[in-house]
Write a structure and sequence with these properties.
Shape: globular
Distance between the termini: 23 Å
Helix content: 25-40%
Order of helices and strands: HEHEHE
Number of domains: 1
Strand content: 5-15%
Largest sheet: 3 strands, antiparallel
Number of helices: 3
Oligomer: single chain
Radius of gyration: 12 Å
Length: 82
C-alpha cells in the first residue's frame, strides 16, 4: 500500500479523492469518493480535514488515490476502533 504525505492531502483540498472500501458498514466508511473540505467555513484551520484523512490513512491503513480504486484487495485493512 502506498502511503501519501500530509502535503499530498493538503494539495487536494477542494478536490475529490478515492479510497478502498472498508469493512465498517456505517455510511461514512462506505463512501469511496471523498471531497477534502476547506474547513475555514467552520472556524477551523483550512487543512483540518486533510490532516484528519492523512491520520486515518496511517492509523487504519486506508489506501487513497486520485482515481477510483478498482482493485479491492485492501478491503480487509480496516482495523476496528477501540
Amino acid at each position: 500500500m502506498k502511503k501519501h504525505t500530509k502535503k499530498w492531502f493538503r494539495n487536494r483540498i477542494g478536490k475529490t479523492i478515492y479510497r478502498n472500501k472498508l469493512r465498517c458498514s456505517c455510511k461514512t466508511c462506505q463512501k469511496t469518493a471523498i471531497v477534502i473540505k476547506d474547513m475555514t467555513e467552520h472556524n477551523l484551520r483550512k487543512e483540518f480535514h486533510a490532516d484528519y484523512i492523512y491520520d486515518c490513512q496511517n492509523v487504519y491503513e486506508i489506501e487513497y488515490s486520485d482515481t477510483e480504486i478498482v482493485n479491492q484487495e485492501n478491503e480487509n485493512t480496516f482495523k476496528e476502533m477501540v
